[in-house]
Amino acid sequence: MTEAILLVGGKGTRLRPLTVNTPKPMVRAAGVPFLTHQLARAKAAGVEHIVLATSYLAEVFEPYFGDGSALGLHLEYVTEEEPLGTGGAIRNVASRLHSGPDEPVLIFNGDILTGLDIGALVRTHGTTGADVSLHLTQVTDPRAYGLVPTDGTGRVLAFLEKPQTPEEIVTDQINAGAYVFRRSVIDTIPAGRPVSVERETFPELLATGAHLQGMVDSTYWLDLGTPAAFVRGSADLVLGRAPSPAVPGRCGDRLVLPTARVARDAKLAGGTVVGEGAFVAEGARVFGSTILPGAVIEPGAVITDSLIGARARVGTRSVLADTVIGDGAVVGADNELRSGARIWCNAHIPPGALRFSPDA
Q: Whole-model pTM?
């Protein structure tokens, strides 16, 4: 297995304002675009040629990664004129693949952070003779996901919609967003129209007797679809809880990128990242958060589990928890933002304008 398709066309609407100016896979996690971690892990698993299926802000990818040679890869880019869904995107790039009909092709989503043993998934695909093999993971509460029950050998039995009652929860296994397709199966996906691989392709393959194999790998797995999850994923990469050969530094409590400045008495912990050209002033405390390039954290600010956009500014003594500040936004001094607050790009909040708790 030397080829892969990476699905990076989504708009990332749940992540806004992070994705107003930047496609979701290009938002920085642990100091580099998230896509860098996925490409590095694919390379480590033996992949040589990756086709990126792009759509939203497609023009951003190639100027950053080029032909992939800097990463030891051969990258190609295919842009959808209209969104085609997961299955449609896979079919749309099929002409760029070089694999023979029976050879395996790795396919993975551009918003999943995982410790999946890619080699084991490929080996499972080969030894079972499957048409498609799926990475499955086990979750404590599967109600938000589609369920994928399997038999004793791991063969997929069904694809079930999100369960509505306890009786419908027949397994804790869910589709984890990474697949190995037999190359010829990709050609059976209808071309030129939107297709959902989860809702259409997989159920139809099952109905026609195809062999779909599930491999449960419950190592680290996180869907980075929400701001809180994205911040957590970045922190876990820095802390070493999520594996990636692309973290630009030693794993630990903090990651300060070159040209960033941090005052001597500022405190950084919990997997915090300070991006290039950013500044954290004296007395500031930042825990488990991402400070994107060029942002400024003023004296005495306290930031927890939050993301501060590029060139944004957080004022003196402001307190932020579980908050996203968009690119170029300014939060004035003595504000308090909590509980999933999102400040849009280039917005300005005056000093002392917002609080969640009363003054003492």
A: 0.91
